[in-house]
Write a structure and sequence with these properties.
The chain has one domain. The chain contains 4 helices and 13 strands. The strands form 2 sheets. Strands 1, 2, 5, 6, 7, 8, 9, 10, 11 and 13 form a 10-stranded antiparallel beta sheet that branches. Strands 4-3-12 form a 3-stranded mixed beta sheet, with no helix packed on it. Strand 3 and strand 4 form a beta hairpin.
Length: 301
């Protein structure tokens, strides 16, 4: 078969056009480098965003648990304080300042009606103590509650204790008498010595109107190494203002972060009710004193 010269030139031009079209549709080296660089930037940005999200989650999760523990601890203490009553004939309400090294660890002793009887010879009266103690294994400070539903000879000891929260860095109680706030309430000495004292302060006897609770928590609590035994017999700490040295951290330990502070005020309902009753009685007596002379004599003297 013979091919004419015109047909051969046409076929060559067609092949040349296809090769030129193919060369125009391909990527150049510069384009490949630019696209690789953009892809690398996108991957690095995605990795940084993912890493920031994981770091934020690790930072937030312990704080969420701390906030929940603080909320539960304050709810328990406030519920007991709202039903507070006189502890015994020697101690109405006892709140003492105490420190353990540099940690403020106040303790509070009172009686409450916020208790449901569980055994025979129990009523709605329960002796309660709140205090801090250091775990000898982990070194953490633990908030404990002592409860004794039986009327014991010594109202400051006996009963069972239960763990409320751990990972604390401090506990402070402040007491309000209607005018001022006090750091302590009551005296450890017996009532006879208190009555002979020349100090006529309202925070030496009776019950306060309100108690302000301040808790400091570690923002990054340690992992709980061992479960603390609950509901066991305990002797509460001494009711003395002297300080006690806690366990020292290892020398290579990092400096602790600032603690998370939580605060609430619990009003004692029985105190407020008794004050309203007494004020109402005084007002009635005053009214009688004013009106009686006018009724008997027919005029104001």
């Amino acid at each position: 078969m013979k091919v004419r010269p015109g047909q051969a030139r046409g076929q060559r031009s067609e092949v040349r056009g296809q090769s030129q079209l193919g060369s125009q549709a391909a990527f150049t080296l510069i384009e490949i480098l630019i696209s690789s660089l953009l892809m690398s930037l996108i991957l690095v940005s995605a990795y940084l965003c993912l890493n920031a999200a994981v770091s934020s989650q690790k930072l937030i999760e312990p704080r969420v648990e701390v906030i929940q523990n603080a909320r539960v601890a304050m709810a328990i203490m406030a519920a007991d304080l709202r039903g507070a009553c006189t502890l015994s004939k020697d101690f109405d309400f006892l709140g003492m300042q105490r420190t353990m090294g540099e940690v403020q660890a106040d303790n509070l002793d009172f009686a409450t009606h916020n208790y449901t009887p569980r055994r025979d010879r129990e009523g709605d009266f329960c002796q309660v103590s709140f205090f801090l103690d250091q775990d000898p294994q982990s070194g953490e400070f633990v908030l404990w509650r002592r409860r004794n539903p039986l009327i014991a000879p010594d109202p400051l000891s006996g009963g069972k204790r239960e763990e409320i929260a751990r990972g604390l860095r401090g506990l402070r109680f402040e007491y309000y008498d209607g005018l001022d706030w006090y750091d302590t309430w009551g005296e450890v000495e017996k009532r006879g010595k208190r009555e002979n004292s020349l100090r006529a302060r309202s925070n030496l006897s009776g019950l306060p109107e309100a108690v302000r609770i301040t808790l400091w928590f570690d923002p990054n609590p340690k992992t709980r190494t061992a479960a603390a035994p609950e509901n066991r017999t305990v002797q509460p700490p001494e009711r003395r203002p002297e300080s006690r040295t806690p366990q020292t951290p290892p020398p290579n330990a990092r400096p602790p972060e600032p603690p998370l502070a939580f605060q609430t005020v619990a009003r004692l309902n029985l105190t407020a009710r008794s004050q309203r009753t007494s004020s109402g009685g005084n007002a009635g007596d005053a009214a009688s004193e004013v009106t009686l002379p006018a009724t008997e004599s027919g005029g104001v003297q």
